[in-house]
Design a protein that fits this description.
Oligomer: single chain
Largest sheet: 3 strands, mixed
Helix content: 55-70%
Structural class: alpha+beta
Number of helices: 5
Number of domains: 2
Strand order of the largest sheet: 3-4-5
Shape: elongated
Strand content: 15-25%
Distance between the termini: 36 Å
Number of strands: 5
Length: 113
C-alpha cells in the first residue's frame, strides 16, 4: 500500500472501518503485512455517511479543517505492526505467487468447464 498523499499532507497511518473493524484479527494481519499502524474508529456503522457529514460540516465552517473534523470521530483500537509476522507473510506470499503462476492454466481450464 502506498502512502496516501494529499496536497501538503501525508498519512503514514491507515484508518480502517468495516470488516477490519469488526474482525480484530483482520486488522492485525493488515497492519503486519503493510508494516503500518491501523487505526479503527469506535463505531464503523454508516462511516461513509459520517465522512460526508464531516466534509459538509467543514464546508459550512462548523470545523475549520478536515483534520479538526476527523478529530471529532471517536477512535477504536490501534493495531501496531509485528515485524516477525510480516516475515512469515512475506515468505508465504512468495510461495503463493509461484503456486498461482504454475496453476494459472489449470484454473483457466476449470473455469471453461
Amino acid at each position: 500500500m502506498k502512502m496516501l498523499q494529499v496536497p501538503h499532507r501525508m498519512y503514514s497511518e491507515s484508518s480502517r472501518s468495516g470488516l477490519p473493524r469488526c474482525m480484530p484479527m483482520a486488522s492485525q494481519i493488515l497492519s503486519d503485512i503493510l508494516g503500518r499502524k491501523i487505526q479503527t474508529i469506535a463505531d464503523p456503522q454508516n462511516v461513509g455517511a459520517l465522512g460526508a457529514a464531516m466534509l459538509a460540516a467543514q464546508g459550512l465552517g462548523i470545523y475549520k479543517s478536515v483534520d479538526e473534523a476527523t478529530a471529532a470521530i471517536p477512535l477504536g483500537a490501534l493495531y501496531e505492526p509485528n515485524t516477525a509476522n510480516k516475515a512469515v507473510y512475506d515468505r508465504t506470499y512468495a510461495v503463493y505467487t509461484k503456486l498461482y503462476d504454475s496453476n494459472k492454466k489449470h484454473f483457466a481450464a476449470l473455469n471453461g468447464l
